[in-house]
Amino acid sequence: MSTFGAAANTNPNKSYEVAQPPSDSISSLCFSPKANFLVATSWDNQVRCWEITRNGTVVNSTPKASISHEQPVLCSAWKDDGTTVFSGGCDKQVKMWPLTSGGQPMTVAMHDAPVKDIAWIPEMNLLASGSWDKTLKYWDTRQSNPVHTQQLPDRCYAITVKHPLMVVGTADRNLIVFNLQSPQTEYKRIVSPLKYQTRSVAAFPDQQGFLVGSIEGRVGVHHLDDAQQNKNFTFKCHRENNEIYSVNSLNFHPVHHTFATAGSDGAFNFWDKDSKQRLKAMQRCSQPIPCSTFNNDGSIFAYAVCYDWSKGAENHNPATAKNYIYLHLPQESEVKGKPRAGATGRK
């Protein structure tokens, strides 16, 4: 019996559990850029918000509010002032939810197929939405029509923005790079350095490149400048024996600019791309981690633990497949970069 208990441990890293989690798989997590409010979207059609409070090493979560979509919700983003949440999903729309005023959610974007990812671009005061209808649309939330519709080569899977850099990952391993100073033209189209389907992307904090994660337990580190191509590399992660798992989430630390990966193996790891080192490998949870995020100062790392449907409906057991959101407090040693090999100078 004890071995089964060990095998079913969803929280081997002794993280803090978020109260009243979603009733179905969690599709996205995002923290407010201004305060410790955490939003989760779920396959139960709900968008939920919690207030996270921390007193020393004790962390508490208080459910604050929620809204409904008509179908599963796949993605979320905050406005940069922390007042408003955007959410999109299988009902082919993006809703804008003013949290501060207790206002009602309103539809601010529409597509012809599910909305897979969204990003708020503060420098442009626009919302970008990417869909399986093979378009990327920019929205002024005060207008009902998009400011611009960009055709994509295939279905959108992931978006990352660090103005002026935006990268959109689509089906068929396309990575479309935009310079948002001229957003209506593709800056560069890259075939993913990874041989399998793109699952996640994350722009470098210095806008000089991006990370891409695939379903095949691998991450690519890609620089945009042709003179920096010798710095590009890929590495394996989220593999166990002969099992290979998807890299579902890539998050840069807001202070140290190291990054976290989270995968369908139930593990999350912290990495330093500049020294090409893994800083910390955490214990594997007994279910996949479909999404994760840092709070605004990097002192809290939130991650979801739930079934991610990667092995189909036949492997989903509702009796055992509970849904969890956990909060990990990263120690500096886990997220602070290491000096590069061969680097000189005092530490």
From TrEMBL:
Keywords: Repeat, WD repeat. The keyword Secreted does not apply. One of its GO terms (cellular component) is nuclear pore. WD repeats lie at residues 19-60, 66-107, 108-149, 240-281. PROSITE patterns: WD_REPEATS_2, WD_REPEATS_REGION. GO terms for molecular function: RNA binding; ubiquitin binding. GO terms for biological process: RNA export from nucleus; transcription-dependent tethering of RNA polymerase II gene DNA at nuclear periphery. This is Uncharacterized protein. It comes from Glycine max.
